[in-house]
User: Fold these one by one.
Assistant:
Number 1:
Amino acid sequence: MVPSIGLACGIGGRVSGAEMGPLVLNERLNADLLWKAMAYPPSGSDSYERIAAANRDLAEAAYALAKTEPFLLSFGGDHSCAIGTWSGVSAAKEEAGDIGLLWIDAHMDSHTPETSETGNIHGMPLAALLGYGDNRLTRILHPRPKLKPENVALIGIRSFEEGEAKLLERLNVRIYFMEEVKARGLDEIIPEAIRHVSNQTVGYGVSFDLDSIDPTFAAAVGTPEPDGLDPAEMLAATAHFRDFPPIAFELVEYIPALDASLQSFRYIEQLIKAIVPATVPSARL
């Protein structure tokens, strides 16, 4: 059984509905998952306070599992839930050392409140994990940055704004834009990126936004961007996790209301079935 947690929160996104993603996946995923916790944002009018509170709950759940389990799954919600997932995992591992992170996404999600044009918090989680932004988001579990820039790699980026790009450029974060992905292929890029985020760390995680996939094949997201990752190529590339297993895998931004054909759900199901045996050989699917 694979320990799994979720955050049913969509208030950080541009389009509502992502809050239902973890609930639907909890109910429908045909995989051997053991759901340990589901977090929810409290009521209120301040989105920062609500998202911070929900992410504290998720971080505590992730911390407890990462302390005792070799691998966990985390399901969002909009991508602001990454703050909770990786705050918890990094805190659980901090005595041993730093963690790395593969950020597979169409977007950089590295805005601060000062650079964001929309104010949507799902565009801020990576910056928060690196220690930049509103302190209600950067100080979850402890005040230190959860990630070091040299231990992060972004894959599939094709939509971003100047402010977030400047932050990541200044921090010298490794970014595999879609142009490079198309030129080289995921079969070459994924193991290279894993080595990059594993070089100075005790383990690495994967934060996977469904909008990284070309919307022709997975359209049930709030911010679809054309020209994305090929779904079959991404599935095949998960084989590299068998050689370099992550310590956690996070999937976010699935909006069931936009998935009448269940095309996106079926892809998520395929992806999770590929991820789980790659990371937990003893898991029964």
Number 2:
Amino acid sequence: MGKLRAYVELSRPKNALMSILGALTGWMNSSSIYDERLILTCLVPPLVLMAGNAINDYYDAEIDAINKPYRPIPSGRISKIEALNIYIIFSLLGVALSALLGLLEFLIAAAFSLSWYIYARWLKRTGIPGNALVSLGVAFTLVFGSLAAGNLTNKVMIFSSIAFTSNLIREFVKAVEDLPGDKAYGVKTIAVRIGVERTGVLVSLLSLVVVVLTIIPVTLRLTGIIYLSLSVIISLSILMVASALCLKGKLGERARDVSNLIKASMFLGLLGMLLDPI
């Protein structure tokens, strides 16, 4: 039972759930048809993402021993070879299922499966490029769902840009949270490069970009009252609280709190996008 729990923790099921919601959001905002393709569409992103989480922990074992010693590998509950096997199995399964949806969906799944390996082994240590790739993966769950539905819409493209920018903000905040281990192992994150205070200012500026992007679908009359309530009013209010903490210079001491606020904002924003077509 302990081993199973460690495997679940390695896969980060909360992130997997967000990827399912992303794919479902893309589909529901592109089609009113619900068939077996929708099931496949909701299976591929979490499998590819969970594979990426496993290979990320494989290469981050030494850093996690400093930043997060409770993680499955540094705590000794899972070996590195077991994490590598999870990456291989989940990647192959996700890519194989994507082939049933079509060539474009297959290429996207295969590209991100390979990208997560490249990210974990090399790109993560470059900082911003790695952050951008992770955020692109989040954004593409919506695009993937829309493409699988057979109709990539402007509305979904705007939604995906919101997802990209919001996740990029959270990546920068997580860089502050992981600063001790990253410094020790020479990872060139944004926090290492420009410092905690400037990273906080950058997070606040990008939060304003998210505000503008989130309001655009409303001004274009692409969305309704559910999106306005959840994605605009509630989600952006939480994001502004996180931004205020950054501007007050509290990002260094409250990075985890800020990260959790941004995560909550992202979840509610995505929920508003998901429920908007109803």
Number 3:
Amino acid sequence: MKMCFANNRVAWYLPILFSLSHGSALAFQDIYEPDDKLEQAHVMIVGDNKRQQHTLHSRTDEDWFKFYAKANLRYDIRANPVGADIDIALELYDSEGNRIFTEPKDEGIEGEEELFSSWQAPSEGFYYVKVSDVAPSSESCRLKIQYELRISGLAPVFDGAIKGVVTDAISGQALANAIVYSGCNKNYPVPSFQDGSYHLTSEAGVCELTATVNGYKPLTCQIHIPEIFSIQRNMPLLPDNETVQAPLLSKTVYHHGDTLYAEFKSVGLPPQSCIRYYFGIAYPDGSFFIITDLNRIEPFDGNFLAFWMGQQNVIMDKPIGDDMPRGEYQFYILRMPEGIDDPFNNLDNGELNVVAFRIE
């Protein structure tokens, strides 16, 4: 017969303390609650070695997790270590909620490791793991109820890492469940979390980084991933039915002495973004200038196109003087993925928009 408290004086006090301050039903909930159904599943990253400790705080508690898998690749799903007072059962479901795999019945031994070994994903997409306690109901002692879950794939050893946030490029809203992968590690993509964040391991070198999510245009940029160190690249995605917004002007007709004010609404500024913005202004005489920071206007030499280096979305905020003659102007914005060395001759890879104004 198992004795709950005989070998540990502290165990006498913990349930009393928690029940007085939080209510006994919530005493041993982990920080990932609520995760009691498929729709509340916590995202797991394949190959992530970060320790996550979970609990089955009651006999009826279920914990749900989801991970993104590639077709025909094999994955290990492992619960270990497991507390001595619970007997873990693992079940695997598809994105429709259909159970597709159940762990073979064990001998009902509490504290034993549970494992799906070399499970092969039938198709690419999200899969869900349900964790529950099948220890005999006659057992009244449930103090050691922690477990750790890991999901791993047959991936190479990676020596670089990328992290960032996936967002709506217009509103800045975080995008959850976006799929992010590196061309150096395309077989093991990761989903973004509820706050849009992602963390991806990859081989070092020059790699393509891609983010996709339903309802948005995919974004692919080329970046250099250093060895050992982690870099940040935010991924602002344009909705399917949107293009980059033209700069917003305070007027369409200006006079000398007026203030020319222009800004843009897109999010994701360098240097931590996978996107580069280029701003140009065409004068009435046909000359063309680029704008690299607030009010910084430089002649374009026809070869090198410098991207926006400003840390804000205001492009111009300056009085119109004699340096801006009367006539028709064109204000351009070019949104281009990072890594394209010659954006001027690769406009098809970006998003271009223009707005006109006049100085009288």
Number 4:
Amino acid sequence: MKPKGFFLAISLVCAAPVAAGQGIEDTRAYANQLFASGRYEEALPVFQRIAYFNENKDDPELWLKVADCFLASNDIDRAREYYDHAYYSEKDDSSRTEILFRKVECNLKNLDHRLALVDLLSLDDTPGAWYFRKLNFFLGIAWFGCEDFTQSGLCFVKSTPDSTVAAEIRELFANPRKFTRPDPRTASWLSVFFPGVGQFYAGEVGEGLNSLLLSGSLVGLGVLMAYFTSPLDAILTILPWFQRYYQGGMLRAANLAKEKRSAQISSIFDSTLTILSRSANQTGCHPTD
């Protein structure tokens, strides 16, 4: 037995007389009180103690509270585990759907977008479903994380009943080049043919001029050295430095393009959430409600 598991077992056994004397329901009431006051770290071991002594192992409310405590403690893996327990213990379809959404939140928080999609795509995406807007809001986030921006935009549009807000979101996602430009490979290849051009392409004029002047200066210095001394001296002295800055310029151009594209994508995502949040504040209804 691992030390952590050993000490947990000891604490549970030692707590047996307390649990027996206090009663499961009294202990649950105390744990719920801690939970309601936001004292999740204190509530967690009490809920776990209840689960240990509880004869009813199919207790979705209990598993849900344990999962919520783990989530509040940022223990995503344990939270997902107990959301699964709650999901399979719950018999009511609406409650099962809500539990699944909480598990999806864990996956999204952990950047496991594909795992989130697996759960979300198992739900019925019909306009008549009560959770339609919430489902499409989470689908929009998950598809965005998977870099399927077309699907993401469509889902975000479905997540709002406001036609004006939907039009704003369509406008954000209308130009697919925002998500693919500048291309790091293109920036790198441009720098292969002419140092500094890749940086210009990435929108970094200062970086491009720096690379161009530095590479040009080394070439000029090499030509002068070859003329006044010998070509071999120029090759041995200047070529290693030129090669270093030439290759560095290629890598730098690719990184600059990647950073700029990532910044553009992040800006679109932030703008989308801002638009949806503004709409929610005006209507008093958020898709995650």
